[in-house]
Design a protein that fits this description.
Chain A is mainly β. Chain A contains 18 helices and 53 strands. The two termini of chain A are 31 Å apart. By secondary structure, chain B is mainly alpha-helical. In chain B, the strands form 5 sheets. A 3-stranded antiparallel sheet of chain B has the order 4-9-8. A two-stranded antiparallel sheet of chain B has the order 1-5. In chain B, helix 3 packs across helix 19, helix 5 packs antiparallel against helix 6 and helix 15 packs antiparallel against helix 16. Classes of the chains: A mainly beta, B mainly alpha.
Chain lengths: 1142, 495
Amino acid sequence: MKKCFNLGALSSVLHKPLLFMGMLTVPLLSNASNSYYETTITKHTEDFFTVEDQQAYEISGIVKDTHGMPLPGVTVVIKGTTIGVSTDFDGKYTLNVASGKNVTLVFSLLGMETQEKAVSATKKVVNVTLAEASEQLDEVVITSDGYRKIDRRLFTGAATKVKKEDLLQGMPDVSRALEGKVAGVSVQNVSGTFGAAPKIRVRGASSIFGDTKPLWVVDGVVLEDVVDVSPDQLSSGDAATLIGSSVAGLNADDIESFQILKDASATALYGARAMNGVIVITTKKGKNGKINISYKGEQTLRAKPTYKNYNIMNSVDQMSVYRELESKGWLNHAEISKQSNGGVYKKMYDLINTYYPSTGKFGLENTPEARAKFLQSYERNNTDWFGVLFKNSIIQNHSLSLSGGNDKGNFYFSTSFYNDEGWTLADDVSRFTVNAKANVKASDKLKIGFLTRGSIRQQTAPGTFKRSKNPVEGAYDRNFDINPFSFALNTSRVLKPYDDNGNYEYYRMNYAPFNIIEELENNQIEMDVLDLKVQGNLDYQITDDLDYSFVGSLRYVKSTQEHKITEKSNLANAYRADDTYEIASSNRFLFSDLANPNALPVVVLPKGGFYNRKDDLLFNYYFRNSLNWNKTYNDKHILNVLVGQELKYSNRENAFFDGVGYQYDRGGIPFIDYRFIQQQVQSGFSYYGMQEYRDRFLAYFSTASYSYDRKYTFNGTFRYDGSNLLGKSKSARWLPTWNVSGSWNAHEEDFLADSDVISYLTLRGTYGLTASMGPARNSSLILMNQISDRPYDSERESQMFIQSLENSELTWEKQFETNLGVDLGLYNNRINLSLDAYKRNGFDLIGNIRTSGIGGEFYKFANYADMESKGVEFTLGTKNIQGKNFSWNTNLTFAHNKNEITNLKSSPNVFDLVQSTGGALENYPVRGLFSIPFAGLNEDGIPTFINENGEVSTDVNFQSENTDFLKYEGPIDPKVTGGLTNTFKYKNFKLNAFISYQYGNKIRLHPSFKARYSDLDALPNEFKNRWVLPGDEKLTDVPVILSDRAYDVNYERTYNAYNYSDARVADGSFVRMKQISLSYDFPKLVLDNLGLSNAQIRLQGSNLFLLYSDKKLNGQDPEFFRAGGVAMPVAKQYTMSLKIGF
Amino acid sequence: MKKFKTYVWSLIAVSGLFFSCSDYLETVPDNRATLDSPEKVSELLVSAYPDATHMNFTETMTDNAGDKEKGDYIQDRLENSEAFFWKDHTTVEHGTPAFYWNACYKAIAHANEALKVIEEVDNPANYSAQKGEALLARAYSHFMLVNLFAKHYDPATASSDLGVPLVTEPETTVFKTYKRATVEEIYTSLEQDIVEGIKLIKDDVYSVPKYHFTKAAAHAFASRFYLYKGEWDKVIEHANFVLGANPASKLRDWNGVYQSYTVNEMGAAYTKADEPANLLLSSTHSLWARGYIVYRYALVNDIKEELFDSSVSAFNLGYKVVGSETLFHIHKYEEYFKRVGGANANVGYPMLMAPLFVMEEVLFNRAEAQVMKGDYASALLDLDAFYSKRSTNYNPSNPIDEEEIRSIYEDDTTQLTAHYPVAEEKMDYLKFILDWRRRDFIHSGMRWFDIRRFHMPVVHKTFNGNELVLQGNDARKVLQIPSSAIAAGITPNPR
């Protein structure tokens, strides 16, 4: 299906690739490509004369579009030859026909319907009007699975192609652009921060504990991740998530199309890595016949979040809670001065304690009236933390590309700059990308291509540490979380950022003064990512039917995270807080020398802050060799055979270094107290570390396709993969996968050929085995080293331990998949439907299995789990109105996926199952959300539950393995996902409205309830309905604020149990007005005056509002987890973009 | 045909490109360790000791525990109440029998892995010290398991009493089928390991000897092993090795330096390697270092008075009971909080450096063996050596004598029974030794094993006055096999 034609004109200049490469630079430097282009054409027309037959006659004419505007750059070729020219800027062409015979001219231009005109020597002027090509859903003739381009008819799998213009626009990270656009691909924006990958599932999860991310393939090569971010980690807000998406290094404007490979047949060539689906990105390349310069500029404004969309009390209500706390014996003077954190009450007591000798007065008189007055002044603050911490800054995204080509070669060069000054005070991103691509036909047989792509990213994020899990109390911990979004939601609106004189106002955190604005300035993560890739392709035609092709690529990614914590930060000051005996003895940031048990803990960071650094490195190369044999007999039998092999090599290195005592304001000299290191060592930690990971992969593949009479197609694939990751044992290393599939093009049958109703109808069927690498690496014994966990230096020694026993049965995770599909076009393709139904049986999945313990490993990762999933998905496209000036198209995607773990020998405890990320349990979905059954408030307003013993109690054992009493809420992944696009076109205006939706998942509400609160807490409005008086338990489910007297340490569990109860679950279904855009294409007339070939202006609003979501969320975004760290929700944004082509 | 040849040659050429890289996949995927020198085998054996302790449930099951009900800081935890009421445990967390079971078998797996490597090396002689340690470590874990999850050794029934699974080689499959060996099979196997291991052990291979089976620790273990078997000469022989000429000098100096310790210092000193009385320590994951103070079912005031108030015991023992009301305890343990994620993280593992063998036990073992042999004079010497390090008003000219012991138990008619006959005249001596053991080993769970050895009943009083009794030969004295092991086909204990 190669469509080769020769623009004879350029050929002799370009017969050497080197020359071509030289030409690349000309338009760049001179920026005068128009004239360059014209002269080239002219010159060659002359060359051509001298070579060809003297009997020639000349044909000329003008090519126009349907609006009557002349079309430049239209290729005019004599059919059946390689002879042709292009139209000039007035749409004119002149062509010499060599022989005196009648010929047919072919007029073609990208985006226009190709037209053929017969001409003869008598008809010397041929004017043509080209119509715009109508966008058809299934117009794709050639399809690419990343390994080869094949005739669509030979392709029998379930795959969806999405063109660039159909993706969500204005997404700097293209992985988000797929949301709702492809049936069966769900995109959950668990964090909107740049670089953080969204949670993407192709046909739902296919692994329980392993990876569920799809495989990304860019220009035929798998895109490796720099760090492996697990599904649960995606929503953790940890800094590692910022480099979780390698796709974030791609410039969205370089992308030509996405191809989503969904079923086993489509992904067969990816064999043992394809279980989670494959997303193939093809980037743009230069088009034959036209030199293009194109610029696109985007300006995006993000709206600040507002408290209207979040469920947080205003300061008056909040103060009433504090007053209740005070009346219940909390927040008293003695209590507060002992606590590590304090808000408005702490402030008040400090003033009362402050004596000014000059005036002889205290900061605040200790009288009920003075205290009340003080509190009242704060009661009315109603601070808008969003307003304080967020900015209305502009994101700019500029990209520029140059491209062109002819039959001897093509080139594409682009560069882009993305600059986000930050939505909050603490973040900003800039990204620079460059992309150069050239393909040359060195001879009739040899084609060579090169591609270089690079990106540089610099990003700032609020300083954060990794969060950790505390299963005893059932909560997550993150030290020093200063995420502005979380801060705005977690901090009392009673407090304020500035005092009455406009200076920073401080509260107490970690026994040290804290002001969020100051802290964000003094505690930041700065990140740099350099991503460079070089790729070469070579195709050699050995015989007419046999091609050899080679792909080789090399990629290097270096990412550095510098966590800069200055001496002024609260974090550093927390290490110095030893004001009183009580503080010194309870501040865990001080050092207690275990060898000296009586000593009071001491400060070991007397000066300076921290300079903590993380480096992640990826070095990756890849080779592929393949032979492709294509043969067509009698135009009836099409045969295609592909064999080949590939090799992948990846080395990853993660290093960290925690620098202590760095003095940012003293020229960066570290001031080190040796006891700080001692403290680290005593606790069994190191101040630096490095880990290496080595990934080696080899595969052999073959596939054969046969198609008869364009009606029946059969396809078989076999692949053999090997990897070092499972460990040293040879038995686990290799895995064969295979697939058979077929399709029937019913519309080619005689009985449908003349149908007015059915334009096309194809039935497809697939059955095959795919696989994926599970998370276990222990086909042989894994030994690791550590320093023994003992308190004293003198008693510590190097210790080796078994991380995993040998598992001689270890293998890959596998899945059998059956897929049945229909592609249907009705009424001249005005209605297009593509429907697929599938069933997947996953087996040998890695489960976290509990053993008898006798072998020495109580929990093992082993291939002992099975799951089943099935689903239906369809895309329905309709052309509702098709007029000359007005058209209306609708596109609906829908996917339903249901999965169930059919076998899992695990025994999760209560905490594992009730968390917001869900847990895995046999006979339930891969991630199911479970709740502790709430049994109402007792007569004291304290929540009760039906606990693990079936009793109504205030106590629930989070570590109980009896989980039968838990209430199953639903899956955390939506059962149904999809989108609805409506496109209206009127003349040059285009209005696009896109709605995305999901249905059927459950989410856990923020864990706001505690057995004791502080004067810093910001509480949700539910607290207004809290239990106050006996009898209220009949009216409300919101628990009482415990009094100091009633408080018992066991109630910590009770209140956490309430957070994890069915009273705190909401439905995750939503319908979102995701995007509305209006674009205007300048008419040709205007363009000509400006000397442009196209220009478009576009206005767009994204993430506009929710059309539906559970009322329990009080307007809060159901997609976002309040994880803190570096996680931010997806902002509501307005974009204006301008696209110009020369 | 020519075309066909082209095809074939192309295919061969292309596929030949990488067939040569057969060792390409041999690359190790991560920074895992290799086991290729005696030093590294020694490092592996650091993990051959259970990283859990039985104290939590054994101590709570004994007559040292009462019910505090409520109080400041008092914590009600499931594993604590299940132990107190001698129930089968339903969780696998810290301080449960299942947690200890897993830790022991994990330790055994490390020992077996070491033994396997030693078996395969070319120069096994270089590894003999490591082999000795591995054998003893493996024996120790099995010994503790059999003494918790099976009946106490009794030569009359040992060949039919179900013990625990005996594991002597590494597991390489996901689910291996195991069977419970008989108590006799276990004891026979352990005796072989102990006897062979003691010969091989070399103290100088250890960098931190107190955390390893030194010669002394190995002999201490042997003295306990033979005490349980009732082979008195061997108890004495092994104890002699440990105790040497002047046993008192090696005991914990309760009436000396311990008297001067602050609470914090005592907690630190008690579990430190440089305390001469500690023979073997193990780093364990345990909440017990807070639990023995704050758990609801622990040492209560009544029991504290009975054991430690001088007016009751009349021996002026110098134990320093600290705390008040519901928190009375002897500050033996200090928690080492191993933080997760950094030196200042909020979350971490509570740990306890648990003494597995102490000098006092060896001394008591020898005294008991001497009593059983009728050598009361030697027994009294040992008891007096102990007394000399406990009494605050010890007078060497007035050593403990038989008369004193007999007078204490004049009215005590309880009978001690064991798997060997206990003559009436030995009874007072044994009671005396057991009482002193009970005091000295308070909070450590050692009492539980004495209760099993002598079929002693246990009475637990709840706060509201109920009395629960664990009879001398109650089936609940044998802990139930963990539920996950039962699920894997291990025969449960009768209930």
